[in-house]
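quick one, 486 residues, struct below
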Amino acid sequence: MNKVTKWLFAAVMILLIAASFIPNPINIPLLWTWRTVLSIALVILYLKDIYLPSRFFWVMSSISALTVSGFFIPLLYYAAQSALLVFIAVCALDMLLLFNKKNLVDCQRMLPRLFSLGDDNPIKLKLKNNNGLKLKVNIIDELPVQFQKRDFVINTILKGFGEETIVYELKPLSRGEYLFRKINLFLKSPLGLVERRIVINSDASIAVYPSVIQMKKYELLALARISIFPGVKKMRKLGSSYEFEQIREYVKGDDFRSINWKATSRKNALMVNQYEDERSQQIFTVIDKGRSMKMPFEGLSLMDYAINTSLVISNVALQKHDKVGLLTFSDKIGATVKPESGPKQLRVIIETLYKEKERNLEANFELLYQASRQFIRRRCLMFLYTNFESHSAMMRVLPILRMINHLHLLVVIFFENTQIKDFADKDANNTEDIYNKTIAMKFVEEKERIVQELRQYGIQVILTRPEDLSINTVNKYLELKAKRMI
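---
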């Protein structure tokens, strides 16, 4: 009930009470006194599963106005009494239609096996009308508290004995356990004077994992040489691989240097050796969990973007038959996953990333170097997800990054401050705008300076917007594989 309806209902009740104390202007016995009508209305109002919609109060207000007019025009009093009796009869009929079955409408919530972090996840509500009556249904699904949606209502109309499937989407912005509660159905018949509530106990919990949707989206990149996804580059392979695959017949365009002369003499036809990409190379994803990664962007922290991309690149590398490992750190070393291949490794990585949380302390890169010496035994491709907001912050850890790059092929991935960059691209209209734009451009140039400084020492760098992180990381992985740098 909104505020206007409440005041209107209060006015109607005051009129009813006043009318019960005023003598009848004409001496005709009444079948129902106003006091009785008031009692019935209050009983209906406080019944558990009966609600009074706006139409009920508008009709009651009209009857009250007609009753008041009856004190001046006696004929209208007869009309008011007749209208009241008809109204009570129609309300009784409406209640009979809505309460003739215990399970008038069935509703079932269908959830996916898990939610993907930062993606739109579909939820289905399957409705079934067990009555031949056409019903207007208002659905209030009690969503998990993490979404903070207080006005979530779905309106639909169910035909007699009809079925309908309603699909809506939710976008979780944090990992963890989400709990769905009851489903509340508010039913109205075509009369619309009374509303019945049906409560369906449908408690269910679902876990929000790193984005499996993004992982599946980029999975085809590992299987096709030419990707159909926008933003993915086709990389030309340089050099030759020494992973032998098979001997086959020569086809026009094959490299003459790959001709197998012994097989050619046996088959009396030109035969060539065919090679494939080198496998079982080690790919490590390293995630900084320090306070610099807590910066939010469109509801997700930078660490959450890094976690989603780590899952994507791990899956792509496993599809390429490489070994994938994981390491997280902040002021101390966090989770570690040894590099392995196979489908079980992906499940281990998903479960590990699901449990990771940001920390409020500065990341210790000295610990990262020690862990890279002890935990990673052979040269690997290392994707390091971190964030540098200033050149001085990068310079403090540059010596350590150079030592890590000497042991492994290091790719440092950090983020553009998109709000500052967008602000720097705006036109300046006054002196204050010029000052603010100058400061913003200084921050943007400082990020570019960090990139140049790292590349000067032979460190691979990705400076990216958070929403482009996955595609840029996959591009870099394919580029390094094509150049045989791993």
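Residues 70 and 76 are 5 Å apart (CA to CA).
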